[in-house]
Specification:
The chain is mainly beta. It contains three helices and 25 strands. It has an eight-stranded antiparallel β-barrel.
C-alpha cells in the first residue's frame, strides 16, 4: 500500500539513505497521489521530498526491458513478455501491447511484494498506437521475489485480457542483496517495530499466498472408487461375471513436505468403505467393513506456481476392497467383497487451485494396482487387480 512506501521513505531518511527515501516517496505517490506525511513525522526536508515526488522527481534508476518492434495490426488481446528475473533496488520497466479487438478502460501491472497477500496496482500509460508502459516501483524491488501480472480491465474493473492472474501470477526473482520490505507495524522515526517477517513454517507464498512457499501441506479428501476384480471373494465365492466392482466411499488424508514449489514427497492414508456388502467373510460372523492402506507419494506440479495440473506416483502396503453382485446369491446375501493387495503401486493426476489464505482446492484421479503375494493375509483372501479413485478435498499449508 502507499502507507507502506511512505513509512519506508521516512525510515530511509532517518537512516540517512536519501536515494532510498526518494524512491519510496515516488512509489507511494504512484499508488496514492494525494498521500500526506503524518504531522507527527513531518519535517521541511521530508515534505520537500514528497513534493518533488508528486511533481515527478526522479526516484532511482529504472531497469529497462528491451523493446522489440511490434506490428500493432497483428496484436490480439494483451501481449506481454514475462520477466523472470531483475536486479534489486531499481524500478522495473513493464511493457505491454493491446490489440484493437479489445477496448480496455485501463491497463495495469498488478504486483505483490514478498510477504504480502494483496496485489498493488501500478497503471500503465499508452504510448503510440498499441503500446502501454509503466514500472514496478523501485521500493518494491527488494526481498527474494515478486508476484505480478499485467491485465487490461473493463469499466467494471474486471480483466478482459491478461498475462497471468491473481490466482496464478508470474514469478519474478530479484537478484542482489537489498534489504527485505518492512511491514506497516513500525515507528519509522524511533526505529521500533513488530517483527512480521514470515517464518519458514508460515504460509506466505508459492501456490497459497505470496512470498515464501509453504513447507508442509496437509490434504484431506474423499470420493469414490471402482476396480477390476477377479479370483475369489472374501466369502469364498468365485468372481464369475467380469469384472468391475466398486468402493462407494473412499477417504484420504495426506501429509506432504514441499521440496520446492513444484515437488513434494509425503505419506498418505487411504480408507475404503465397502458399502452394501451382506455376505460374511469365511470364518467370520460378518463381512469386512474397511479397507485400510498406507502410501508413500511423490507429487510434481507442471506449473512453477505449484497450482494447476500435478502428476503423482505412489507405492504402499494395504488392501483395497470392492463389492460385487454374486450371480448365484440369495436374497439378502448377494453382495460380496473382493480384496486386492497387499502390495500397492500406482500413479495419478491431480489439480490444485488456490482458494485464498492458507487453503487450496484439490482434485485427484488415482490408479492403484493391488499385487497379491499369496492367497491370503491372515484369514482374508486376496487377489491381484487394479483400482481407481476420484477424490475432492482441501489442502492447507504451513
Amino acid at each position: 500500500t502507499a502507507k507502506v512506501y511512505l513509512d519506508l521513505a521516512i525510515s530511509a531518511y532517518a537512516a540517512g539513505d536519501l536515494d532510498a527515501a526518494k524512491s519510496a516517496f515516488q512509489s507511494a505517490v504512484q499508488i496514492d497521489p494525494k498521500i500526506q506525511i503524518s504531522p507527527a513525522y513531518k519535517s521541511p526536508e521530508l515534505q520537500k521530498m514528497l513534493d518533488e515526488a508528486k511533481a515527478g522527481g526522479s526516484g532511482g534508476d529504472e531497469v529497462p526491458v528491451a523493446a522489440a518492434a511490434v506490428d500493432c495490426l497483428t496484436v490480439k488481446g494483451l501481449q506481454h513478455g514475462i520477466i523472470d528475473t531483475a536486479p534489486a533496488g531499481g524500478a522495473l520497466a513493464i511493457e505491454a501491447h493491446v490489440g484493437s479487438d479489445i477496448t480496455p478502460v485501463k491497463v495495469s501491472v498488478m504486483y505483490r511484494i514478498e510477504g504480502a497477500t494483496d496485489f498493488t496496482e501500478s497503471k500503465l500509460s499508452k504510448q503510440g498506437e498499441c503500446t502501454y508502459t509503466g514500472t514496478i516501483p523501485a521500493a518494491a524491488m527488494k526481498g527474494a521475489l515478486i508476484h505480478y501480472y499485467v491485465a487490461a480491465f473493463n469499466e467494471n474493473n474486471k480483466p478482459i485480457s491478461a498475462k497471468g492472474s491473481s490466482g496464478s501470477p508470474n514469478i519474478l526473482e530479484i537478484s542482489g542483496t537489498a534489504a527485505p520490505l518492512k511491514s506497516d507495524n513500525e515507528d519509522p522515526i524511533n526505529s521500533t517495530q513488530v517483527d512480521t517477517t514470515p517464518s519458514d513454517n508460515s504460509i506466505n507464498g508459492g501456490v497459497i499466498a505470496g512470498g515464501k512457499p509453504p513447507k508442509v501441506m496437509i490434504i484431506v479428501g474423499g470420493g469414490t472408487g471402482f476396480g477390476y476384480v477377479n479370483g475369489n471373494t472374501e466369502g469364498g465365492n468365485m468372481v464369475e461375471t467380469c469384472c468391475v466392482g466398486n468402493s462407494l466411499v473412499v477417504l484420504n488424508v495426506e501429509l506432504d513436505y514441499m521440496l520446492n514449489r513444484q515437488l513434494a514427497i509425503g505419506v498418505a492414508g487411504r480408507l475404503g468403505i465397502p458399502v452394501g456388502a451382506n455376505v460374511n467373510a469365511e470364518g467370520a460372523e460378518t463381512h469386512s467393513t474397511i479397507a485400510p492402506a498406507g502410501l508413500l507419494r511423490v507429487r510434481y506440479a507442471l506449473s512453477a506456481t505449484g497450482e494447476g495440473l500435478r502428476l503423482m506416483g505412489q507405492v504402499g502396503f494395504g488392501v483395497m476392497r470392492n463389492t460385487i453382485k454374486l450371480d448365484t446369491g440369495m436374497a439378502g446375501m448377494d453382495t460380496d467383497i473382493v480384496a486386492q493387495g497387499p502390495i500397492l503401486v500406482g500413479a495419478g493426476i491431480g489439480f490444485m487451485k488456490k482458494l485464498g489464505g492458507n487453503f487450496a482446492f484439490v482434485a485427484d484421479l488415482s490408479a492403484l494396482a493391488g499385487i497379491a503375494i499369496g492367497d491370503k493375509i491372515g484369514t482374508t483372501r486376496v487377489n491381484t487387480g487394479v483400482g481407481a479413485d476420484l477424490s475432492l478435498g482441501l489442502a492447507v499449508g504451513f
